[in-house]
Amino acid sequence: MGDAMIEESAAAPEAQVGQDVTITTVMKYMVNFLEHIDSLVSGMRADISSLRSEVSMLRDELRQRHQTNVDNQAVNEDDDEDEDDDDDPNKYIVSATPPARKLVIFYVNGFLTYIPRHPEAVILKNGLYEFMQFCLQNFVVAIWSSNMRHNMDRVLDKLHLFSDHFLFVWDQSKCKTEDKFTYCKDLNDVWNEFTDFNALNTLLVDNSLRKMIHNPINNYICPHPFDAASHSDDNALIMTQIYS
Predict the structure, then answer these.
(1) pTM surpassing 0.70?
(2) Which residues are CB-contacts of 133 (< 8 A; sequence separation ≥ 6)?
(3) How far is 126 from 120, CA to CA, in rounded Å?
(4) 124 - beta bridge partners?
(5) Whether residues 145 and 230 fall in one domain
(6) Domain containing 201: what range?
(7) Cβ-count burial of 107 within 10 angstroms (0-12 exposed, 13-18 middle, 19+ buried)?
(8) A single GO CC term, please (predicted)?
(9) What Cα–Cα distance (Å) separates residue 139 from each residue in 11, 165, 190?
């Protein structure tokens, strides 16, 4: 049945901006991102295992040298322990294994929701709750918007079932201002504050390449935005749950 649905989807006309192509593209990228990082981590673990073997051999050699020095000199027990600590090469080895789950950071207006300029109503994408459940089960999720906080609060009120599970919710005040109209998002600010995450396990979803000037190219994706004109026909999130 799944294959038939995929073939039918392939035969359909090209999706309009804000419809299936938006979330489907993001989801495919997220899955590829997970597989790519898992492959990197597997290679890193093999490298670390080899490095630890070399460190173990080096430690044995250092201990032999240290024992020789002890035999030739009168060194008290406390000094022995200090010197042994200084010669231990393991203190220079740090873990290169990132957290099991990766961090995905979403922008709000144009991806998860549409925020009208004047009305108070916030329009949610079809299937948003199912999509957020999928993300929270597979990723660490955060929200970063270039909107002001009061606009963010309107969205969070709609997402109250999930807002307590977000790693952070950042607004315009966390962006870097390049000009009067462009608020850039620098992932280094995230990595400095949340040190479990880095370029190996973070994906930022945003609608503007101009906001990405501070970030490595492999750490962001910029899908087409969702707009009010297409929201009534948008079923991308629902279709994503079927395909996954």
Answers:
(1) no
(2) none
(3) 19
(4) 113
(5) yes
(6) 16-39+100-243
(7) buried
(8) TIM23 mitochondrial import inner membrane translocase complex
(9) 32, 11, 16
State the amino acid at position 105 in one-letter form: I
Does residue 155 lie within any of the structural domains? yes
pLDDT, tens digit, 9 for 90 and up, residues 183-208: 888 999 999 999 999 998 999 988 77
The residue with tokens 């649905």 is 5
Residues 83 and 108 in one domain: no
Residues 238 and 159 in one domain: yes
Give yes or no: residues 138 and 64 share one domain. no
Is 132 within a domain? yes
Which amino acid, one-letter code, is at 155? V
Q: pLDDT, tens digit, for every residue of 58-85?
A: 777 777 777 776 666 654 555 555 544 4
**Amino acid at site 191:** W
Amino acid identity of residue 13, one-letter, is P
Q: What is the DSSP string of the chain?
A: -HHHHHHHHHHSPPPPTTSHHHHHHHHHHHHHHHHHHHHHHHHHHHHHHHHHHHHHHHHHHHHHHHHHHHHHS---HHHHHHHHHHT-GGGG----PPPSSEEEEE--BTTTEE--SS-S--EEPTTHHHHHHHHHHHEEEEEE-SS-HHHHHHHHHHTTTTGGG-S-EE-GGGSEESSSS-EE--HHHHHHHSTT--TTSEEEE-S-GGGGTTS-GGGEE-PPPP-GGGGGG--HHHHHHHH-
**6 within some domain:** no
